[in-house]
């Protein structure tokens, strides 16, 4: 049973992050015992789930839905959320790859050019 400071530290986040997740309904607010709220292993598991889902690109609303789906065992809906997230990540990866290629081209032009304006600066100066 951990007080909020140690609970936050166990999850690698700040106390305000814990409170934020509680306000969003992602983490429970334990009852006070002797004036202190205590968190258990179940809370640590929930926090780590939130952090991993967030790292996978899920929004907080989607994470909340996944938490509900976990308790209802609705694998089909969880699958739909995951495949939707994969699709969105694929789009983002394609956009980032396109931006990387464009910047790489500008960097190559900049290195090869000794006179005139820098192609990188010029490209962003529109």
Mean pLDDT: 90
Which series of helices and strands comes N to C? EHHEEHHHH
Radius of gyration based on Cα positions? 22 Å
Strands of the biggest beta sheet: in what spatial order?
1-3-2
Helix tally equals 6
End-to-end span in angstroms?
58 Å
Q: CATH architecture of the largest domain, please? A: Orthogonal Bundle
- Which CATH first-tier class of the largest domain would you pick? Mainly Alpha
Taken together, the total number of domains comes to 2
Task: Report the oligomer.
Answer: single chain
The CATH topology annotation of the largest domain reads as Multidrug-efflux Transporter Regulator, Chain: A, Domain 2
The helix content is over 70%
Estimate what percentage of residues fall within beta strands.
Answer: 5-15%
Unreliable sequence segments? none
* CA-based shape: elongated
Structural class: mainly alpha
Domain HTH merR-type: 1-69
GO biological process, one term: response to mercury ion
Pfam family, one: MerR_1
GO molecular function: DNA binding; DNA-binding transcription factor activity; mercury ion binding
What does this structure look like?
- This protein is mainly α and 126 residues long.
- The chain folds into 2 domains: 1-57, Orthogonal Bundle (Multidrug-efflux Transporter Regulator, Chain: A, Domain 2), CATH 1.10.1660; 74-126.
- Helix content is 71%, strand content 6%.
- The protein has 6 helices and 3 strands; from the N terminus they run E-H-H-E-E-H-H-H-H.
- It has helices at residues 4-11, 15-23, 41-55, 60-72, 75-112, 119-124; strands spanning 2-3, 32-33, 36-39.
- The protein has a 3-stranded antiparallel beta sheet with strand order 1-3-2.
- Helix 4 runs antiparallel to helix 5.
- The longest helix has 38 residues, at 75-112.
- The protein is elongated and about 75 Å long.
- The termini are far apart.
- The mean pLDDT is 90.
């Amino acid at each position: 049973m951990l007080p909020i400071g140690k609970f936050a530290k166990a999850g690698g986040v700040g106390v305000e992050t814990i409170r934020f997740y509680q306000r969003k309904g992602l983490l429970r607010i334990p009852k006070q015992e002797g004036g202190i709220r205590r968190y258990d292993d179940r809370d640590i598991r929930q926090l780590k789930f939130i952090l991993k889902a967030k790292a996978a690109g899920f929004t907080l609303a989607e994470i909340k839905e996944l938490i509900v789906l976990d308790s209802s065992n609705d694998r089909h809906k969880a699958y739909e959320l995951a495949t939707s997230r994969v699709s969105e990540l694929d789009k983002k990866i394609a956009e980032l790859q396109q931006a990387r290629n464009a910047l790489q081209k500008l960097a190559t032009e900049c290195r090869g050019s000794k006179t005139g304006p820098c192609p990188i600066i010029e490209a962003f100066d529109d």
